[in-house]
Amino acid sequence: MDVSSETARSWLQQWRSAAEALADQRARELGALTADRALMASDALLSLADPGSLSPDRRHTSGLVAQQAILHRKRP
After folding, report:
1. Which end of the chain, N or C, is less packed with Cβ atoms under 10 Å?
2. Long-range contact list for 57-66, CB < 8 A, 24+ apart?
3. pLDDT tens-place string over residues 31-49
4. How does 56-76 read in b/e, with b if 16+ C-beta sit within 10 Å?
């Protein structure tokens, strides 16, 4: 794909503007967030997980340490 430098600059400026606008929007939303709304949102996210489907072993460990040992070629 051959893109002119002017097109590339225009595209880059558009993405920079979008990033700034999104950062501003994020700051406004976080500034308006109350503790009650934050707790409600976190409760809603946590309710999506079904802890009943976890195996008994999974309830005590995530397996991260074992996975890291495997990736480092060590035994857990």
Report:
1. N
2. none
3. 999 999 999 999 999 889 8
4. eeeeeeeeeeeeeeeeeeeee
Identify the CA nearest to 4 among candidates 15, 18, 12.
12
Whole-model pTM: value is 0.51
Which pLDDT value is given to residue 74? 62
- The span from the CA of 25 to the CA of 5, in Å, is 30
Tokens 């406004």: give the residue: 28
pLDDT at 76 over 60: no
**Which runs of E-coded beta strand occur in the chain?**
none
Q: What pLDDT score was predicted for residue 53?
A: 75
Rounded Cα distance, 27 and 7, in Å: 30
Query: In the numeric block, which tokens belong to residue 14?
Result: 């558009």
